[in-house]
Write a structure and sequence with these properties.
mainly alpha; Rhopdopsin 7-helix transmembrane proteins; 325 residues; disordered C terminus; 13 helices
Amino acid sequence: MNNTKCVSFDFTHRFLPPVYTLVFIVGLVANGWGLKYLLHNWKKPGDINVFLLNLSLADILYLLTLPFLMVYYFKDRRWIFGDAFCKITRFCFNLNLHGSIGFLTCISVYRYLAIVHPLRVRGRLTVTHSVAISVMVWLLVSVQSLPDMFYTKTAENVTECDETTNKTYVKDYLKYSLGCTLTGFCIPFLITLGCYGHVIVVLCRRNTTDKVQKQRSLKLLFILIVLFSVCYIPDHVFRNLNLWSRVLTYQGICHEWSNGVYIVHQISRGLVCLNSALNPLVYLHGHEDIRSQLRQLLQRACHMFRRPPPTDSGSVPMNRIKDEV
């Protein structure tokens, strides 16, 4: 575990439980709504709906583990569910993290092909292809996340559930984490940026392109950049920095920045779990019906809050009292 001489765990106890609670509530509502809409309007599964469905399932899989993590932090980092379930919980987190990135990348590639090479892919992207690609993503993500299951999550006589591993294997785990960052984040991120960068260039050069299509592509690019910048980039950067800090600490080297890196890493852990609540923005962007329904719900909510409280029918108006006086 982390060396308490270099870092303080107080921030984690105050920060992560409220974040997990908020993400659990908002994420379940948003993904449940998006999943219901996708299944209710399953008109073009050969496009990107298959990937959106898998993206939602990956989010829900992770959200179902959050109550156990809430109990863990509310009990002052005392894990009461056993070492095996601790590994399963962390495995589900890695599946969600890398699975979300994988399916967002697939969505980006499909949109790129549909806009830049519409004639070449017309009629060739079927439901079978989408399902096969989704299965490949799950397999690759599982293979990438499986080694994490073999790293010890608890130390002797310790009831913590470490997100990485204990001090005995932290040096090897840093190498594994760097490899996951390269293959599971950097490469998909570059593919996504390349696809949408080319899409924007092509749309800007075409004089016949509908302005609405340009705006949608720009909005989706903005959403993906926000998702990667807010949720994924900080987690991968500061997780590896924190692991490096732990390696130095267990070698007897304690830097002043170790506690700062640890705190920022905990913030990035809170941010990365937000992807489960923010991923439905992809649904909101891709389907006009959902956006209109959301606007209607917001308008109804605002109308309810602005509605004046009911007055007692038996009360006498003030102006009438004044007239009588």
